[in-house]
Amino acid sequence: MRLLHTSDWHLGRSFHRVSLLEAQRAFLDHLVDVVRAEDVDAVLVAGDIYDRAVPPLSAVELYDRALHALAAAGVPTVMISGNHDSARRLGVGAGLLGRAGVHLRTVPAGCDRPVLLRDEHGDVAVYGIPYLEPALVRDTLGTDRADHPAVLGAAIDLIRADLATRPAGTRSVVLAHAFVTGAAPSDSERDITTGGVDSVPAALFDGFHYTALGHLHGCQTVGERLRYSGSPLAYSFSEEHHRKSMWLVDLGPGGAIDARRLDTPVPRRLARLRGTLAELLADPAHEAHTDSWVEAVLTDADRPYEPMAALAKRFPHILSLGFDPGNRPEDPDASYARRLAGRSDQQIAEDFVAHVRGSAPDDHERAVLRDAFDAVRAAAAGTERD
């Protein structure tokens, strides 16, 4: 049985205000091409289909287009809802979609009802566990605690009970959307901490022949049979060094595993650059990033004039600019009130400019500040007379 494991599409998400709709369309086209070229028997999508509970129409249209393409390919698809999805909205029409070969698992009560697949080696039972919000599902699953290990453990117990009723030799596959202890997160996942516990132990999934995980955006292997596919696109600069991919998993007789990574299309490389403005503009080592999406952090002691405009001439796709000067004297013991004591509004404003920019205002800037304060005082005096 050949399985294609993907997750965290986040349809509708942008990257620092840059639309990723075309890149997401290219990925989904690539996915369908892989399904055909690699003779895939089933597609597993481990949650976060959308980026938010009420996705934009363009994202819904893209999702609809992908479902039609997968159904037309004649390959069963099993999908679960993630913490970014609205389970109720995503699950609308699940029964009808199932008849077309697209099997949605969005409610906890259905996690022990597998999609049954079959090949020459026998049955494969595919169970989908949607993202479980502990406070909302603890009663449904009959747990005493409202945390992730408790509710996910209860769902897995239901799956094990069902699996025990299946014919001997049935191979088991589980989809789950969770943070498994020991895996590496990035900056672009939404925190799922509840009750102080957000991660679940990998041992929960012991005994299953393959577990297709979603939620973390870096492709990684937690165990031979426990893997994250990661997101197909980068959604934060913290993913600069991620290799975006999907898992192609061959599940052989007796549950033998052979898994390999298939790269996904990269719309544009990411680069995180750091240095003074002059260094970033002149260093030949940065020539490779002129076509990248760039996050720049300037270390100039004094904030340069219009640095974004200057950087955009060399890096036309720069998206983020930060400042981290490293040579400012600090006085951590001086309280804010003590620093302001006995100082005029003009002096406080000049100190603020010096703190933010790294250098004191010049004579012209002092005059501008003085005129501004005079105008405010005049307006305030006029109001009092009225």
Automatic annotation (TrEMBL):
Keywords per UniProt: DNA recombination, DNA replication, Endonuclease, Exonuclease, Hydrolase, Nuclease
Calcineurin-like phosphoesterase domain segment(s): 1-217
Subunit structure of this chain's protein: Heterodimer of SbcC and SbcD.
Organism encoding this protein: Actinacidiphila epipremni
Gene3D superfamilies: 3.60.21.10
Similarity field: Belongs to the SbcD family.
Keyword Nucleotide-binding in record: no
InterPro entries for this protein: Calcineurin-like_PHP, DNA_Repair-Maintenance_Comp, Metallo-depent_PP-like, Mre11_N, SbcD, SbcD_C
Function noted in UniProt: SbcCD cleaves DNA hairpin structures. These structures can inhibit DNA replication and are intermediates in certain DNA recombination reactions. The complex acts as a 3'->5' double strand exonuclease that can open hairpins. It also has a 5' single-strand endonuclease activity.
A Pfam family the protein falls into: SbcD_C
Ranges in coiled-coil conformation: none
Protein name: Nuclease SbcCD subunit D
Gene Ontology MF annotations: exonuclease activity
Residues in Nuclease SbcCD subunit D C-terminal domain copies: 267-355
